[in-house]
Amino acid sequence: MAQAADGRKGRKPRLTNEPAGLDRDTLLRAYRDMLLIRRFEEKAGQLYGMGLIGGFCHLYIGQEAVVVGIQLALKPGDQVITSYRDHGHMLATGMQARGVMAELTGREGGYSRGKGGSMHMFSKEKAFFGGHGIVGAQVSLGTGLAFSNAYRSNDHVSVTYFGDGASNQGQVFESFNLAALLKLPCIYVIENNKYGMGTSVERSTASRDLSQNGSPWGIASLQVDGMDVDAVKHAADIAVAHCRAGKGPFLLEMKTYRYRGHSMSDPGRYRSREEIQKMRSERDCIEGARHKLAAFDVDEAEIKRIDDEVKRIVQDSADFAQTSPEPDPAELWTDILKEA
Amino acid sequence: MATEILMPALSPTMTEGKVSRWLKKIGDMVRAGDVIAEIETDKATMEVEAVDEGVLSAILVPDGAEGVAVNTPIAVLGGNDTAASAPVAAPRAAIAAIPAAAPAAPAAPHAAAEQDWGATSPLTVREALRDAMAAEMRADGDVFLIGEEVAQYQGAYKVSQGLLDEFGARRIIDSPITEHGFTGMAIGAAMNGLKPIVEFMTFNFAMQAIDQIINSAAKTLYMSGGQMGCPIVFRGPNGAASRVGAQHSQCYASWYAHCPGLKVVAPWSAADAKGLLRAAIRDPNPIIFLENEILYGQTFDVPTDPDFVLPIGKAKIERAGTDVTLVAFSITVGIALKAAELLAEQGISAEVINLRTLRPLDIDTIVASVKKTSRVVTLEEGWPFAGIGAEINMQIVEHCFDYLDAPPGRVHGLDVPLPYAANLEKLALPKPDWVVAAVAKLF
Ligand SMILES: Cc1ncc(C[n+]2csc(CCOP(=O)(O)OP(=O)(O)O)c2C)c(N)n1
Ligand SMILES: [Mg+2]
């Protein structure tokens, strides 16, 4: 069993590759959810290339196991907040592919009615709190979501995702202190994909072990193989149990990898093609899940059925995103203040 | 079934690009994810991956072809591709939001105060900024550059391209994403006599550090009774780019111009950029240097004289006129010049002032012009409330109220967070027509 490290006692966390032992149906669901994100992002990349999506567009391809594995450990009403690399998180929380894609194309049918774009989508219904463009800002906000749960004495947890680059922002450490001090049910998830834009973790961060970043405040933590959905789910179960039990925040460092550029305009000179290819061929989370499914006697026909379903959802979202009208010009002036 | 490969959009501001070279040749089997070509965008050279599979059956645009518009077919994938999804033709509207290049500055017959620097050569704003930093770094070993992605990545917007090679990692410093921390650190270094240039990837992120900029950089000279200066430049793109949404599209001109202890510079042309950045680096005060991403790729004539520098605090008359004064800065100078052309067609002669510096404001040049024309419209991309236009027009009222034949007018970005949708974004930002309409109200 992986042990949650308690920084106060100076215990080192260890990399948990330990599986949660997902059953057949859960693994199938995880496979489907990861595939949906992968195919959705590939389609978004194509639409960007065609000029249908503008501005910044940060794809999640490669990191799917992180959000899907954690989501499996949550219950409805638990809150999720993340950065601009947010399409995968939205799909994982159950937001509709149509609404996400139509927001990417800036249309009326989008989650923000075209006014937010790739980086800024929200769903009250799914307790998804965005979509934030300023690196690190969501960490304080996520701490506040946890505060609201503690304040109301409910047993919900909030999950706050951020990158390795973001982990160096001052407000992240301020948030850690607050969360530990107030014993907030906040799960901090560092998605360590090795790079913040073109800067590797080695070049941005003096600490070699990001899972220890909360140790001065005694924040329990685990370092996790974020390319294995089973291991992610296992670690998430531990973190969720810890938070629901009122023991304060928990930090998960997910070792993961993004296959695509930082955004669509990243020439990618800071790493080799071989490095990407190696990750893709040896560690891919979707391939990994497919392997495990074979052990459950899931046959090709069943896999094909899922692949087809996913393809249909993605194609439908792309069609919708192109036919949904542009927002009415009057939308310019709405949503600035609420009627008092 | 054959699939056309279209020229992809590879950055928010790319409308066309160059096919640098093909990495596959006709007859090659291409798999999804294979790199098929290198394409040079407005910012960088990018590798293009195939999204479909098949045999490359035709190359429609040869190696080295420049100015290839986004969505132009560049090759054909044919043959054995089973799940061929024919590419959907992209509607032009999606990319039409990108503003057309600003016109070259017409001669300014009355810009007599402007020193003649002799021969010029064309330079982009991006190159001009880099050349200014390089020149000052060669001249003064205390000048250094710090920011995110400024060194190995060559600048997020390629402004610092080549500087790491020339000056090394001691002086071109990649910072972690810690704006508050590295800004404070640079200000501390400046208090001790170094001359930092702090690049913010965009000014939106300087908000993380605005406490240090105002409370530490701007006020320390005053609070120390003049002992402790802070020679530092904070620079980076300001204002809207293209379709990057509300958190990444804000004009901070009036925020910084509000504060005593700062100088605020906002260049428009490449000559402005080069001459003013050199002056800013030499200046012993904290300088906010507001660039504009959309201008980075635009080309202007720049004096070749190695000593070329422009004075901070002096505006430039970009176009002389007699009937109305248009006061603009940064990207709105281009809008004002376009509006002046439209107005000329209606028989109205507009004088266009490029402010160059917002604080200290060159009110003398503005007042002299308004005394001549008796009408004025200010331009800015930012919001109107307590904006730059509000301040300028108030000062005009204070200085030359009696000369005005009509109330001062202003053109500004609409009073809303900038929306993402292409159509809404276009509706929210100033354009030449708005200026023409504002001028019409004065007659
Ligand atoms: C405060 C702030 N500074 C800089 C940026 C520009 N920027 C956007 S993403 C990014 C890199 C972040 O890397 P990381 O936190 O590792 O997340 P990843 O993109 O890898 O998911 C930077 C520098 C920003 N959006 N906000
Ligand atoms: Mg990262």
What does this 3D model show about the protein?
The complex is a heterodimer of chains A (340) and B (443). Chain A has 340 residues and is of the alpha/beta class. Helices cover 42% and strands 10% of the residues of chain A. Chain A has a six-stranded parallel β-sheet, with helices on both faces. Chain A has a two-stranded antiparallel sheet with strand order 5-6. In chain A, helix 1 (24-49) runs antiparallel to helix 10, helix 1 (24-49) runs parallel beside helix 11 and helix 4 (97-104) packs across helix 11. Chain A starts with 14 loop residues before the first strand and ends in a 17-residue tail after the last helix. The model of chain A is unreliable at 1-13 (pLDDT under 50). Chain B folds into three domains: 3-78, RNA polymerase II/Efflux pump adaptor protein, barrel-sandwich hybrid domain (OB fold (Dihydrolipoamide Acetyltransferase, E2P)); 120-303, Rossmann fold (3-Layer(aba) Sandwich); 316-440, Rossmann fold (3-Layer(aba) Sandwich). Chain B has 13 helices and 22 strands. The interface between A and B is large, with 57 and 61 residues. Thiamine diphosphate sits between chains A (85, 133-135, 163-166, 191, 193, 195-197, 262) and B (148, 177, 179, 201, 205, 208).
